[in-house]
Specification:
Length: 356
């Protein structure tokens, strides 16, 4: 498993480089051919390659993961794959190339894969823009899905917040700040009002965060700004909260005379609510006990994954079955090597049970 992990990590695959992702996909395809005896059905969308394996005519369990990482090409030169003191480290090792290795090794131990479908995508780190249609088409009607994203400190992820990104644009009227400022309508001032109103939509007691982030206004220091904008990052635990924030953002109105507003949603990933994971988590607890593994824990996390998209389809899903380690997206991310086989055994037991 460590050597397979080395091969995947050394095939650098930043989401921003589709060609590099294809090279990594080739490595994953070779590993699958060795471990499960079949190459993938390669699906290309907008210049990106995603890998899919279907065993049998009807999917009874879907296993999903991604090959892309947040690390730029060349990172490996200064931070090579290494194993030391029981930990494997390297760019993308935790999120989530170890999960891919666990997935393939798990399936290599299952006697019959009839009813199994596997999907490995290459743009998950940017919200799966080209893979989303393939995910939805592959998962439709599936009784159960297992997501090999990394664990949360060893805990499985039974709840993930939904993610939405909005852009709020203000249109005002330019004017000279010294000669005739009264003829202008200051878009920056209006933006300030809106940023405060937007931030007030948060409901920390419900797990809802509403964060104005990247803002811009104006073109010159001596000109009343005619345009201003802000991006807003929204995280919600429930669909109801996502809908509330969406409707309240749409209801924003300008307070500065002569200005107008426009609100656009650029990204919308629905929340993975615990009700979609509860039964699969209970099954995983039973399987872990039968394998003699430590009791499983569950966690609610703020980041989204393709598991959110599956839950939006009504598919029961269990996330965080991948690597045990830490520092996702951070310098020095690592995987506990001893956990690789343990988690692969858990995934194999889940697959056998779901197929049976």
């Amino acid at each position: 498993m460590v050597e397979a992990l080395r091969a995947l990590v050394e095939a650098e695959s930043p989401t921003t480089d589709p060609h590099a992702c294809i090279e990594c996909a080739n490595v994953a395809d070779e590993l699958a051919a060795d471990l499960v005896g079949r190459r993938s059905e390669r699906r290309e969308t907008e210049g990106r390659v995603h890998l899919r394996w279907r065993f049998g005519a009807q999917t009874r369990v879907l296993l999903i993961g991604h090959l892309d990482t947040v690390w730029a090409l060349g990172t490996l030169a200064r931070w090579p794959f290494d194993v030391r003191d029981g930990r494997a480290t390297g760019p993308g090792v935790f999120d989530m190339k170890a999960g891919v290795v666990q997935l393939l090794f798990a399936l290599s131990t299952v006697e019959s894969l009839d009813g199994v479908t596997v999907l490995l995508t290459t743009d998950e780190e940017t919200g799966s823009p080209t893979a989303r249609g393939l995910i939805e088409q592959t998962a439709a009607g599936t009784p159960a899905a297992l997501v090999l994203e990394p664990s949360a400190g060893g805990a499985l992820k039974t709840e993930r917040k939904g993610v939405a990104v909005y852009r709020v644009e203000v249109r005002g009227q330019a004017a000279h700040t010294g000669l005739d400022p009264e003829k202008g309508a200051n878009a920056a001032v209006e933006l300030a009002h809106q940023v405060l109103a937007i931030a007030a939509l948060a409901r920390p007691d419900l797990g809802t965060t509403v964060a104005p982030t990247v803002a811009a206004a104006g073109t010159a220091v001596n000109t009343i700004p005619a345009d201003a904008s802000v991006h807003v990052d929204v995280r919600t635990r429930t669909v109801a909260e996502a809908d509330r924030v969406a409707s309240q953002l749409a209801a924003l109105r300008p307070v500065t005379p002569g200005t107008s507003l426009r609100v656009e949603r650029a990204t919308a990933i629905p929340p993975l609510e615990r009700r979609f994971s509860a039964q699969l988590f209970e099954r995983a607890q039973r399987e872990a006990a039968e394998l003699g593994l430590p009791p499983l824990r569950e966690a609610s996390v703020g980041g989204g994954s393709d598991g959110n998209l599956l839950a939006a389809l009504g598919v029961p899903v269990l996330d965080g079955l991948g690597a045990v380690g830490d520092h996702a997206h951070g310098e020095g991310e690592y995987v506990e090597v001893a956990s690789l086989a343990e988690r692969a055994a858990l995934v194999a037991a889940l697959v056998r049970g779901l197929l049976g």
